[in-house]
Amino acid sequence: MSPETAPLRAGLIGLGMMGRHHARVLRRLAGVELVGVADPMGDPHSAAQGVPRFDTVEQLIDLGIDYCVVAAPTAFHEKLGLTLANAGVHALVEKPLAQDVASSRKVAEAFEAAGLVGAVGHIERYNPALQQLRARLEDGQLGSVYQVVTRRQGPFPNRISDVGVVKDLATHDIDLTAWVTGQAYRSVSARTAYKSGRDFEDLVAVVGQLADGTVTNHLVNWLSPMKERVTIVTGERGCLIADTLNVDLTFHNNAEMMTQWEALSNFRGVSEGDMIRYAISKPEPLQTEHEAFRDAVLGKDSDIVTMRQGLVNVVVAQAMLDSASEGVTVSVES
């Protein structure tokens, strides 16, 4: 952006735990001016810091904003998204896109029909460990990919009350798995549990299959005192392990071995080989996400999670819930 170009005018809806981080990044984002925030519940974390605060999205729109970040509870995403689309305002909506498939489709189609940039805040895509993992898969480091395993566990976040662990957390794993492999989901088989007395599930275990036959496994819960965010991709040449909490990426190489056991002489096995922990640059994922969305609004080529992709993630999440409810494997429509 040249010095004479006016900065994009940005607004923010929602000043909770995630909203305060969006406000922090927006205030320092080059080429962008945070001109207003909105939250009818006030500003519990003092995120506004002198920026005008309003109670409604309409008041924010009246400021003349170019784009808006929606960090409100999921139950409000549909109404807020449709209001912004009708006003001609680009939007980055925190995941999930909306509370269900029908609502997500309405929002995605509204932004597409209006010719607006609409994105969903699947922040894991911007984690440096996963970005490096994806690049290495594209370069063929593992050869054929056999399996993707994710573990996303930790204590219950008090900020979540309107969705369960599938739509709040497992949607991260749905999105990152399809993104790093470049393959869509074709089926899922899931089981859920309700252990904490809440209306929504707090544990899910999922086995899935991607379009190319890759097997996936996802373990997600809000019941563990141990916080874990791990993605393991296994292929013919070894496995890559991304720890997105610590932003680490390691590679375990297959060391093929010859066996002297006659009964196994035809088995092509592997043994432990070298392990490499890569040194990678570690910019803040939220900063990278905002930079990508800003560039998309400016018409530049940018890697954002589109609302159409966000809709697909909600479709897969709903398939997981349907599978757990019915006790069957559910096919995922493309």
TrEMBL record:
<feature type="domain" description="GFO/IDH/MocA-like oxidoreductase">
    <location>
        <begin position="131"/>
        <end position="240"/>
    </location>
</feature>
<dbReference type="Pfam" id="PF22725">
    <property type="entry name" value="GFO_IDH_MocA_C3"/>
</dbReference>
<feature type="domain" description="Gfo/Idh/MocA-like oxidoreductase N-terminal">
    <location>
        <begin position="9"/>
        <end position="122"/>
    </location>
</feature>
<dbReference type="Pfam" id="PF01408">
    <property type="entry name" value="GFO_IDH_MocA"/>
</dbReference>
<dbReference type="InterPro" id="IPR036291">
    <property type="entry name" value="NAD(P)-bd_dom_sf"/>
</dbReference>
<dbReference type="InterPro" id="IPR051450">
    <property type="entry name" value="Gfo/Idh/MocA_Oxidoreductases"/>
</dbReference>
<dbReference type="InterPro" id="IPR000683">
    <property type="entry name" value="Gfo/Idh/MocA-like_OxRdtase_N"/>
</dbReference>
<protein>
    <submittedName>
        <fullName>Gfo/Idh/MocA family oxidoreductase</fullName>
    </submittedName>
</protein>
<dbReference type="InterPro" id="IPR055170">
    <property type="entry name" value="GFO_IDH_MocA-like_dom"/>
</dbReference>
